Amino acid sequence: MQFDDDADLDTSEVRDVRGRRLPGGRAAIGGGAAALIALILGLLFGVGPDQLGLTEGGPDPAASTATASSQTQVEQACRKGSDANTRQDCRIVAVVNSVQDYWRAEFPRRQGRYTDARTVLFTGRVNTACGAATSAVGPFYCPLDRRVYLDLGFFDELRTSFGTSGGPFAQAYVVAHEYGHHVQNLMGTLQRARDGRQGPASGSVRVELQADCYAGVWAHHATTTPDERTGRPVLARLTPADIREGLDAAAAVGDDRIQERVQGRVTPETWTHGSAAQRQQWFDVGYRTGDMARCDTFR
Q1: N or C: which end of the chain has fewer CB within 10 A?
Q2: Backbone CA torsion sign across 246, 250, 39, 259
Q3: What is the dihedral of CA 72, 96, 241, 283, to 10 degrees?
Q4: Farthest-apart Cα atoms in the chain, separation
């Protein structure tokens, strides 16, 4: 995975609040078993604190405002694609730029209008319009404020706890999946996850698999979607090894893999995100076809 060294990165699409101490209140998630359960659910991607019942209070606008030092650091460090090739936080900026470049171009082709969503980088704990959460929840999209929330330490958990490489494209897959939820929110399909059911045929599973498919669609077009500022794609090269890395990450966080690891047995009736094979399958559908219309997991 290689970004164009001369690409201009747009840091306005990422808000950095890492290191910010939030005011008052107890932690949204305690230690021990509660944190472990939240981490496991968070590792399945897309689970916001409101869905886990781990919210605390209401939204705190100040909590979404970066300190001058943290935001300035990203703005100064993440200027070019060459920075994304050497720094993790700049890589996230570049992936967000690439993903949104694609969806901004795709929506008008389908008589729609894409609205940008920011990614918020945080450390430890963050307040959102969906409630407060700690990093144990994992990456998630909050539809109420239309933002993706990400603690970069999550990628260490992918490596140490779940045996994936957690490498550059595994990280890109996570980000693209969360923006898949943003696309669903704009299209009115995200609410279909709230059908109150679990299991392979539930709305929750179908929504998550569709977000995997949308991530694959972006990957298909990533090296050919021009950046509106330079006219060249932000992502210059994507190899078969990169795609295998993404598929490996998708499989590692399938419901069946998580259940087998944690409880020693697989209980499909409680699935909320889909099996390892399903997650790989739908990412592959998106990647092979490059057509979001082929991502109808509700049929």
Answers
A1: C
A2: negative
A3: 150
A4: 51
Residue 116 and residue 87: Cα distance in Å, rounded? 24
Alpha helix stretches (DSSP H) within the chain: 32-42, 49-52, 68-77, 81-84, 88-109, 154-162, 168-187, 203-221, 240-252, 255-263, 276-289
Which tens digits make up the pLDDT trace of 171-219? 999 999 999 999 999 999 998 877 778 888 888 999 999 999 999 999 9
Torsion of the alpha carbons at 83, 141, 153 and 10, rounded to the nearest 10: 10
* pLDDT tens digit sequence for 74-132: 989 999 999 999 999 999 999 999 999 999 999 999 999 999 999 999 999 999 999 99
The amino acid that residue 96 corresponds to is V
Can you give the pTM of this predicted structure?
A: 0.85
